[in-house]
């Protein structure tokens, strides 16, 4: 669906490249994770994909057609994004207003808007909170509202840019399980950005970024089995991965396989 060919980007002339000859493809309907330590270029890559930044060199293709560099809106229409800090993205006084905002901007008729907002809030389990102030919700609830706001315009791609990194473990689980449900139910492509290896287990495909380079890519099993690259990319190996490698002579086992083996 989206293909980035040899993308480089530097913020200012004198800076080092934030992205270095990145080529990435992802399929429509897939759940793709981009994993990398602080400053590895994840958010820069997201901005390029969304058409917010123009690459210094390289090209982007959608369904095989090059994206018109002079028309970044062509990209932006297709994407919705949920950011890291839930408090920075609310615009409405109530949960309901907030989720309706994106549709108001598109000039959607009132009746359709009411239906869509209700459906989106029910999808993330936040309908009963519709009259609450967004700022008074828990971190996980805030991100669920942000996901509803992102989904209500029916984007082709939902981007989560470290959207769970400020949440406690329960909040993380809550958000990841909602995402899994959404992915199973709709054909939305999900681009999941994280620095946390524990969060990629359900991805169809994973890219690892280090200092603006893609240093590994493949299935979850492929990237977990190359421990050296994970360590040299400053990614912390979670306990279950260390355990699975110890039990299985360095090979990776999924959570279920570890339980089975134990
Ligand atoms: N607005 C900017 N101006 C100049 N340099 C920038 C700017 N934004 C990011 N950079 C630099 O580009 C590189 C990549 O940053 P980016 O924000 O894409 O990384 P990231 O992987 O998203 O990091 P984090 O995990 O902290 O969110 C870093 O070296 C960073 O210092
Ligand atoms: Mg970032």
TrEMBL record:
Residues covered by the ABC transporter domain: 2-236
GO cellular component: ATP-binding cassette (ABC) transporter complex
Membrane-related topology note: Peripheral membrane protein
Coiled coil ranges: none
Main location: membrane
Name of one Pfam family that matches: ABC_tran
InterPro entries reported in the protein's UniProt record: AAA+_ATPase, ABC_transporter-like_ATP-bd, ABC_transporter-like_CS, ABC_transpr_CbiO/EcfA_su, ECF_ABC_transporter_ATP-bd, EcfA_1, P-loop_NTPase
SMART domains: AAA
Molecular function terms from GO: ATP binding; ATP hydrolysis activity; ATPase-coupled transmembrane transporter activity; cobalt ion transmembrane transporter activity
PANTHER family: ENERGY-COUPLING FACTOR TRANSPORTER ATP-BINDING PROTEIN ECFA1, HEAVY METAL TRANSPORTER
Record-linked NCBIfam families: ECF_ATPase_1, PRK13648.1
Family the UniProt entry places it in: Belongs to the ABC transporter superfamily.
Name this polypeptide is given: Energy-coupling factor transporter ATP-binding protein EcfA1
Species, as recorded: Phocicoccus pinnipedialis
Gene name tied to this protein: ecfA1
């Amino acid at each position: 669906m989206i293909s980035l060919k040899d993308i480089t980007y530097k913020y200012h002339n004198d800076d080092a490249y934030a992205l270095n000859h990145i080529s990435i493809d992802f399929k429509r309907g897939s759940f793709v994770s981009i994993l990398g330590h602080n400053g590895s270029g994840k958010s820069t890559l997201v901005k390029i994909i969304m058409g917010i930044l123009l690459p210094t060199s390289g090209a982007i293709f959608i369904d095989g057609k090059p994206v018109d560099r002079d028309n970044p809106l062509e990209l932006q229409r297709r994407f919705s994004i949920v950011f890291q800090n839930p408090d920075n993205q609310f615009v409405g006084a109530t949960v309901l207003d907030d989720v309706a905002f994106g549709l108001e901007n598109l000039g959607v008729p009132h009746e359709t808007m009411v239906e869509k907002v209700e459906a989106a809030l029910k999808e993330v389990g936040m309908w009963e909170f519709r009259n609450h102030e967004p700022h008074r919700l828990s971190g996980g609830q805030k991100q669920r509202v942000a996901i509803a706001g992102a989904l209500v315009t029916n984007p082709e791609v939902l981007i989560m840019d470290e959207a769970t990194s400020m949440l406690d473990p329960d909040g993380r689980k809550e958000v990841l399980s909602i995402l899994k449900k959404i992915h199973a139910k709709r054909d939305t492509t999900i681009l999941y950005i994280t620095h946390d290896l524990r969060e990629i287990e359900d991805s169809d495909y994973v890219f690892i970024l280090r200092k603006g380079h893609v240093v590994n890519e493949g299935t979850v099993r492929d990237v977990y089995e190359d421990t050296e690259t994970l360590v040299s990319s400053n990614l912390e190996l979670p306990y279950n991965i260390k355990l699975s490698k110890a039990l299985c002579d360095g090979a990776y086992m999924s959570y279920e396989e570890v339980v089975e083996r134990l």
